[in-house]
Write a structure and sequence with these properties.
Layout (H helix, E strand, L loop, with lengths): L26 E5 L6 E5 L12 E5 L1 E3 L3 E6 L5 E11 L2 E7 L9 E4 L7 H4 L2 E8 L4 E8 L3 H8 L25 E4 L11 H9 L3 E7 L3 H4 L15 E5 L1 H12 L4 E4 L1 H14 L5 E5 L14 E5 L6 H9 L2 H13 L10 E4 L1
């Protein structure tokens, strides 16, 4: 199975640069795995495909303003860090640019009010502990006060590189149910939901269940190997509470369907199911890589966005349906001028 098998043509003008004014006004392409039919709908029509006894499982991670820009000690060269994962004791795994100018012991100052004396006036100081492959760098932060409050002052939302326009309202890169801080990117399938739409689903008898996977490098790192099976996913932290595990098992045992909102939710549920043979309360790290041939144990339906060519995410949705059906759907979406990627339209696979 080759990475190039998951390539497709996408006109650049179909890459959504800004979110729609109304979250739920996006289009929805419904893909039926049994009939292989495609239906053009709007996102609010999602309710037509849910029924009493089903569940929507949401990832309630919250994006931190994870991109910070500072100056290197001595040379004052510009250094950008993208915070990926908290390692404990003020240590973080980051993507650093330019990494080649960093080495263990290097200090980077952020938010200094006096460029001539950054060590004394910086709000945040990072000391490089280790440099790894692909720009990954481990740093230890020093600061006075509360780290996340300082990050709010200094950091910006880490929008994907294919989005070139500034985001006027930072909250539009958060789901309405975002709660647990820790992601370097939004679980974008959930961006389409409004509180009102979730309430309507609940009023229909659909159970709303929340889990957490903090999105890091594993989700958006490109596949740089020819053979798909040789790709190694980076680890990301997840948690399923006792309450969520119980609710998911009750839905399954009663014949209801589990609709995963986003690929991060799929990866969390299937990680735990592979680990235990069932869903249990659990917290840990996952590097699960789902591609065609994978056997799903939990997820019955998937709400997702349109993903980048040759990405692990398009491989995941190709595993959930079939590669031929997904590429038929993508060709249809291109022809019908759907909006693609993070701020784009949605797909429901049933």
């Amino acid at each position: 199975m080759k990475t190039d098998d998951f390539d497709y043509f996408l006109p650049e003008e179909l890459i959504a640069q800004t979110p729609l004014k109304d979250r739920s006004s996006s289009r929805l392409l419904v893909v039926d795995r049994k009939t292989e039919n495609l239906e053009d709908k709007h996102f609010t029509n999602i309710l037509d495909y849910l029924k009493t006894g089903d569940a929507l499982v949401l990832n309630e991670t919250k994006v931190i303003p994870a991109r910070i820009i500072g100056s290197k000690e001595e040379t004052h060269g510009v250094v950008e860090l993208l915070l990926l994962k908290e390692l404990g004791e003020d240590r973080w795994e980051c993507l650093a640019r330019p990494q080649k100018r960093l080495h263990p012991g290097t200090r980077v100052f952020f938010g200094a009010s006096d460029n001539e004396n950054p060590e004394e006036t910086a709000k945040l100081t990072a000391t490089v502990e280790e440099t790894l492959e692909e720009g990954i760098t481990h740093v230890k932060f020093e600061y006075s006060g509360i780290f996340l409050e300082i990050l709010d002052q200094l950091g910006t939302m880490p929008l994907p590189p294919y989005i070139h326009e500034q985001l006027e309202d930072q909250s539009r890169y958060q789901t309405v149910y975002a709660k647990n801080l820790g992601s370097a990117a939004a679980p974008t399938a959930g961006l389409h939901f409004t509180s009102e739409l979730l309430k309507q689903a609940e009023d229909m008898g659909v159970k709303i269940i929340k889990i957490t996977l903090h999105v890091g490098l594993g989700t958006f790192r490109p596949v740089n190997v020819e053979d798909v099976t040789k790709h190694k996913m980076h680890t990301e932290t997840y948690e399923i509470t006792e309450e969520a595990a119980k609710a998911i098992n009750e839905i399954k045992n009663n014949g209801g369907r589990i609709f995963a909102v986003g690929t991060t939710t799929v990866r969390t549920l299937e990680t735990v199911a592979e680990k235990y043979g069932e869903i249990r309360a659990d917290r840990g790290e996952t590097s699960i890589f789902i591609y065609p041939g994978f056997e799903f144990k939990v997820v019955d339906g998937l709400i997702t966005n349109f993903h980048l060519p040759k990405s692990t995410l398009i491989m995941l949705v190709s595993a959930f349906a079939t590669k031929s059906l997904i590429f038929k759907a993508y060709e249809h979406a291109v022809n019908e001028k759907y909006r693609f990627f993070s701020f784009g339209d949605a797909m429901l696979i049933i």
